Each structure stands twice: as C-alpha cells, then as structure tokens.
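Page 47, continued from p. 46.
Same chain as before, 526 aa.
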Amino acid sequence: QLEARVAGDTITICEGDVLALGASSISGYKYSWTAIGSTYNSTNANPQVSPESDTEYKLVVSDSEGNCTSDSAVIYVIVNDRVDGIDFARDSFFCAGEDVSISAHPGFSSYQWLGDGYSFSGANVTFDEQDTVLLTVIASNGCIYYDTIAILEKAIPVFSLGPDSTICENLSIVLSGPPNMASYTWNGQTGSNQNFETSVQQVHGLVVVDSFGCTYSDNVVIQTVPFASFDLGIDTSFCEGGFFTIIGPGALSGYIWNDTASSSANLTVFEAGTYRLTAFNSYNCPFTDTIVLSELPQPQFSLGADTGYCEGGSLVLNGPTGLEDYLWTGGSDQQNLTVSSQGSYSLRVTDDQGCRFIDTIEVEEYSNPIISLGPDTTICIGESITLDPGSGYADYDWSTGVSTQSIVVDSKGTFSVTVTDINGCEGTASVDVDTVTCGTESIFLLGTESIRFYPNPTADYLLIEGERSLAGADISLQNAMGQVLIQVQNKDHSLRLDLSNLPNGSYVLGLKKDNNQVYKRVIVSH
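Result:
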C-alpha cells in the first residue's frame, strides 16, 4: 500500500494499486477530500484510494468549532497502465541429474527469482533442484508483477534388460523394456515396441524416453551356441500288419519321441501317424524333426482323384493290372469300365493272396462352357470394339486365328471363338459386327418432337436436348450385353450424361415419353 502524506505531492502508482492519502487525523479538525472532475469525496483524514486514471485530489481542513480559517492542499496521482494477460514464466520440470533453463517474458526492466534459500536476477535462469519459485518482474514504468513457478524433478525411467545371456542359435529370446514409455529405440531403431525378440548374437541396446522426455538406456549381451540338425527322412508308408523303424541321430542325447522321453535314438512303430523327435547336442540345444507314416492296404491301388467327363461324352475308369478278380459297381468283372453317367463308382480287387481292397471314385458330368460375345453390334468406321468371352478358360481359339482371351475388331464381319475349360470341355459363341460412319451430332424424332444428342462418338459426356422439353422423359443407356448402365427420369429441357467412366465401345441410348420410344447407338471413345 502506497502513502501520500505531503500536500502538493505528485504520486505515481500503477493501475490497481491502493494509495493512502494524507496523514493521521488530529482531534478538533474536520477533513474533506474530493477528486477534481469526479464525484469522489471522503471525510477521513487519510482515506485509501485506487484511481483508474490520473486524478487530482483536494483536501480541505477546518476546525470543528468554526473558529479558525479553513486551509486546503492538492495531491496529484498519476496512474500507469498495467500489462494484462502475460504469462511471465511457465511451470517446468527437469529429469533427475539434469537441469532446466527457463526464460521469463522479455521486455521488462527487472527480474528477481526467489526460491527456497536463494535468489537469482535476470530474465534467464537455470534450475537443478525442485522448488516453487516466486518471480518478481518490474516494468519500465515501475509497475511490479508477481508470478509463481513450480519446478518439478522427474524421476529417470530406470530399468534393466537383465543379465547377459547365451541362447541356442535356432532359438530366440524376448528382451523387455519398461512399460508405458513414449518411445523405444532398440539397437538404434526407434519405435513403440516395449519388447524385442532376437536370435542374433550381439550387444543389444535399448534407449527409452518417457512422457516427460527423460531418457535412460541399458545394454545386454546375447551370445549364441550352435545346434545340431538331423533328418528322420521323407514321409513314407508301410504295409498293413507290418512295422517301420525310424532311425534317429545316434550322436545326440536326451531323446523325446512325441513328448515322451526315451533312451533310444530309434523308434519302431506299428501304426500310421505323425512321429516327432526332439534331441539335444552337447550345448543342450534342441532340434526337432517330424516324419509322417501311413499304413497301406494290400494290395494297393487307386482309381485316382474324383473326375468327370464333358457333357455328351464318356470316361474310361482303369483298374490295376495283374490281379486275380475285379468287381465294379453294376457287376462288371473287367479291369476297365466305360461310364457315361455321373455317380459314384467302386472297384473291389482281389490279389493272388486273397487280399481285397476297395476304392471309390466320384464321376461328374461337366457342363460345357456357355459363353457370349454379346449381341450383334455396330461401331463407327475408324473405331474398334473388344470382344471377350470371359476369363478363366484354359484355351481360346478365335476365327481370326489368335489364341488370346480377347480380340480388338475394327472392321465388319462375323467373329467366333471356341473356349476350352480346365476340364477340356468346349463352348462356342459368335457375333456380327457392322460399321457405320459416325458424326458429332444426331437428330431424331420422339413422337412429334425433334431430339438431338451430341457429340457422337464422345469421350466424356453426351448432351441430349429436346425441341420443346425433355421433362418427364425416361432416359437409359445400355451396353452391348443389354445391361442398363444409366436410368433417369429427366426433369429439365435437356440432360447431360457423364460417360467418362465407361470403357470404349458401342452403347444404346433409349428415350421414352408419352408412349413414344426411340433407341439410338452411341459410341464412346476416350
């Protein structure tokens, strides 16, 4: 609180400061304070004021009995503006073992930082201890500002990757860093993975940065020792009622066959199945191999995979040679069987030992491919159209002599193609292509109304205009296959169709209004 006690003083304060005028009261006197140019008044000997702008205060003193002549004096108060909305310095933090530099808002005459048992001067200071600091700032006009800044010390995210380790070179180890870090840099590669799996022999390092930017790192050495591989051989078979001996690696130890420990490297089996062996070398490194054994019936044969024949054809099923007896579904006793209807066919054979085996095959009648080149079409002279019966066939035989899936036609004529599917079945289609001279504008009648559409051929759009109005007309565009690509009911005098996404080719424009209907050909050529 400021005081102005001497009459005639000029006092400078800052906006918002409180000023005490005058002095203590004297018994027997009356005091009257007014402010020139305002309605302020006070009868206190030393009132407190806080003017918002420069103000001249006048004091009139008289005795309470009216025996003495009154006296007066003036105090002039100058009010300096304060700067509002400034954050003089922000709370900050530093990582343990480091420090942090803070810069106060520039442009002031004096900066004083007062902490726990210390003080600093200047706009820029460095802290290496946690504290709550009072910042006093003095502006060039003498106004004083205060701000409190919290300086926090953040703990370093200390962690350990564990002791150095040795692993088998065919195995891996997962290294784990601390959770919830902002970033993880494994071996120089920055990412967001807390864990790192490796089988590489080297010094592995992790640098972590937490959400405050504090950093810590650790290294671990991973050594590898070799493993010993072995091979149980290719998957094989043995005859029903027999046995098979799997030969394992005799130079290794710690044999585990299908999760069961054994003292033997070899295993004799009497049943079909999957057999897995894990064995260890002198470094105690494991290696595993698997062999699949199947039990074959006697005598063994197969009618083959399920198959079929093309529609209207037949198929010969071949049984094995050199056996004593054959019996097919339907009663035939021949080695081979010709079938012309689909279904399930079984063959039972008997060898010279009286052993029997039955195999079954599913025979299907394959449908011949049904293809289409689309309806007969017309193209502009100088343009072309692509004929394509569809993808997925094994072979294409065009009347033009080519064997590609599609051909490009730029002349009139009849074009045909025969396709062969993966089953060897064939399908044929043909199309007549005519050519016309195309202009950029076409005019025709829809009932009694003259309609024009242009440009034709077109690359991007087609504009359709009516002599009077196209409002209420149903307008469509179909491709050469008869598929409707565009269908609108027009509401305006004209219509603009966007054709920029259509492939090159011939299309049919249809207009229908008041029971009148017209179809016109449109050529798209980008």
